[in-house]
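Lab notebook, design round three. We kept the backbone fixed and only want residue identities now. Task for the bench partner: fill in a sequence for the structure below.
Input structure tokens:
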């Protein structure tokens, strides 16, 4: 084992020495200086913090003064969005009223069908009641005819009794006298004997005739009593039939009126419900048309804002280039005047063209130009993809469709509100299978590219400015 250095053994073996009074004095002095300078440092920190706040406030005021004024396109876009929100709320309320009117119409139609069935049933009941009433009327007519026949027979019987009574009236005194004093009435007269005998024989015959007529009278009286009883029965039956007929006619009229009133009321309610539903549908159609107009105005304002933003971006870049040239000229002039060595400035950063495979999950294809890349028409404000013919296009975020229709020369355009002030703009599609106001999930199908292929423009807008879509994809 190698031998330890001597200096190490000495350091280990050396006992700890006490600090000298000079060192202790220096330490105390440093502590005192620190205690004195601490408030000064705190004051300097407070002053620095105050200066930072003043500078931040000055920067905020300067930014506010240099903030560009609100353009007419921004005002039009804001007004269109406000109107869109108002129309959507109104359209939602009108949709609720339309649904309620449709439900009322369906209920009224169902009630009309029920009332129609009820009216049919009531009509069937009136058929039976009418048939019963007709039977009652026929029976009443028959009873009336029988009663009339009984009255006629009663009159004839009474007339026969009256005639028999008149025929017997002269003979009644003689018959009464003969019945009391038969021999005295025959023998006290001055008539010859043969007349008396003849009178006896006549009396005998008359007695038989009177007996026969008396029997006939008794029979007629019995018949008359039977006729009177039958006639009374028929009259009672006739009265009962008349009362039944009155009740049946009243019931028949009530049922017929009920069927008619029910059908009329239900038909009127069904017609009114249908008219109300048609009116609400017309209002909904008008609101939808106005909303479509507002969306078109909003899309136009957004396109104008995009154009203005692109023009402003070009102007800004041109101004930066001019400023860079002026700075370079000033530096060159300063170097030339001072006779010093020229120091070359680093050139401004150049955005490297980006290209690659894949459509970032939006479309099948590859990236042609990326956001911020220089192009012939200026700096690219979005990503442009060379898409495969007929390839499907998917939603880059979850949100609400604000615009879905052809727009100028961009083909089918979709504006998707992703929330938090960001909107995706996709242009160049061949067809769309979504509509305005529809809610979409991220990755859902929104349409397809043209059958002959084409380029898909994907922009992300935050207000009126374009931002890099890469962090969102």
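Proposed sequence:
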């Amino acid at each position: 084992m190698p031998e330890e250095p001597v200096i190490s053994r000495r350091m280990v073996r050396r006992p700890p020495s006490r600090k000298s009074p000079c060192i202790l004095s220096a330490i105390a002095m440093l502590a005192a200086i620190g205690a004195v300078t601490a408030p000064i440092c705190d004051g300097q920190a407070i002053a620095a913090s105050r200066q930072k706040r003043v500078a931040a406030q000055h920067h905020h005021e300067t930014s506010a003064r240099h903030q560009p004024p609100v353009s007419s396109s921004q005002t039009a876009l804001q007004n269109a969005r406000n109107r869109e929100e108002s129309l959507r709320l109104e359209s939602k309320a009108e949709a609720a009223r339309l649904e309620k009117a449709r439900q009322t119409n369906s209920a009224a139609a169902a009630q009309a069908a029920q009332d129609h069935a009820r009216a049919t049933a009531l009509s069937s009941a009136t058929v039976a009641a009418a048939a019963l009433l007709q039977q009652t009327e026929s029976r009443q007519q028959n009873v009336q005819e029988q009663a009339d026949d009984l009255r006629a027979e009663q009159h004839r019987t009474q007339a026969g009794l009256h005639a028999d009574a008149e025929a017997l009236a002269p003979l009644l005194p003689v018959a009464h006298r003969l019945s009391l004093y038969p021999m005295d009435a025959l023998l006290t007269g001055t008539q010859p004997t043969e007349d008396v005998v003849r009178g006896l024989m006549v009396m005998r015959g008359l007695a038989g005739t009177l007996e026969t007529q008396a029997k006939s009278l008794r029979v007629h009286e019995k018949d008359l009593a039977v006729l009177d009883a039958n006639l009374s029965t028929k009259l009672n039956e006739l009265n009962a039939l008349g009362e039944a007929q009155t009740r049946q006619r009243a019931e028949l009229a009530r049922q017929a009126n009920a069927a008619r009133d029910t059908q009329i009321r239900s038909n009127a309610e069904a017609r009114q419900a249908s008219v109300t539903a048609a009116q609400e549908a017309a209002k909904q159609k008008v609101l939808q048309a106005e909303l479509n107009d507002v969306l078109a105005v909003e899309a136009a304002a957004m396109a104008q804002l995009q154009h203005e933003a692109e023009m402003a971006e070009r102007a800004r870049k041109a101004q930066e280039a001019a400023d860079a040239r002026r700075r370079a000229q000033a530096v060159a002039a300063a170097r030339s005047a001072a006779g010093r060595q020229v120091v070359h400035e680093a050139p401004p950063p150049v955005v490297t063209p980006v290209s690659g495979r894949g459509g970032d999950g939006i479309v099948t294809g590859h990236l042609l130009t990326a956001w911020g890349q220089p192009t012939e028409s200026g700096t690219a404000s979005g990503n442009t993809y060379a898409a495969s013919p007929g390839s499907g296009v998917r939603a880059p975020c979850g949100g609400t469709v604000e615009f879905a229709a052809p727009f100028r020369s961009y083909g089918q355009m979709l504006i998707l509100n992703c929330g938090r002030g960001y909107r995706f703009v996709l242009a160049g599609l061949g067809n769309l299978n979504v509509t305005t106001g529809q809610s979409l999930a991220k990755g859902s199908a929104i349409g397809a590219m043209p059958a002959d292929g084409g380029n898909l423009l994907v922009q992300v807008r935050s207000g009126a400015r374009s931002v890099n879509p890469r962090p969102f994809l």
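Keep this in mind before ordering anything: The mean pLDDT is 76.
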